[in-house]
Amino acid sequence: xxxxxxxxxxxxxxxxxxxxxxxxxxxxxxxxxxxxxxxxxxxxxxxxxxxxxxxxxxxxxxxxxxxxxxxxxxxxxxxxxxxxxxxxxxxxxxxxxxxxxxxxxxxxxxxxxxxxxxxxxxxxxxxxxxxxxxxxxxxxxxxxxxxxxxxxxxxxxxxxxxxxxxxxxxxxxxxxxxxxxxxxxxxxxxxxxxxxxxxxxxxxxxxxxxxxxxxxxxxxxxxxxxxxxxxxxxxxxxxxxxxxxxxxxxxxxxxxxxxxxxxxxxxxxxxxxxxxxxxxxxxxxxxxxxxxxxxxxxxxxxxxxxxxxxxxxxxxxx
Length: 318
Fold this sequence. Notes:
With about 325 residues, this protein is of the alpha+beta class.
């Protein structure tokens, strides 16, 4: 059984790491973009951000003044038992969010949508969001915190099967141009695309693709992987760079996730993470060990299964 105090302590450490320390995969991607950028203002922004990230780590301060809207992704093995059960788990994550808001500190962004009231701690009705995933076997729990900007950088459209790949490309480019021209996202960023599902699951797929996959990772479907490479190049060919200025590095990487959908439609969502790509991960074991990492490793074969029953032997054979 995993102790609830250990879960809360680990969660508070993760909140600190996500706000302050850039994941290595994203930092490498950003440095590569800075090395090839030739737009004056875009180059200036990229260099300033790289210097800011280094200063944030040295001073142990949040890397961006807008620390986004903290959210949690929780994955656990099928045999996992938690002291106090799922209610205690959610309470621990809410306490960790509140404590980190005052401790790191984070900007208390969460307010009531109508009355604009807040508790000054990023906790409230439906906040922070907590999403769950499960894996066969094992007694462990993965805690993943993502501090994603909570204003713009997201769009959705119902496409139709006849729109095909060209329709997907058009909406993708429409979204990126709108993000850049209207200041709706902080570029460059990891772009996540959700295809299929229902409207709500399509949005979830796209956001998870942006926030829970690392730079350089590719979808196991070779045709989708080829699209990810093509879309990264396409997004960097529209003449926009950092923060929408003239440049050629708007997309650090592009990740695509799919879900089966209604036969008459083809849902699509586009999500930009942040120029400050804030995520941190830890696996908590039943024996008290805690292993920190930056790769969420969310999209396993099990998460992408497409059969009625889970057949790991068949998946390994493929």
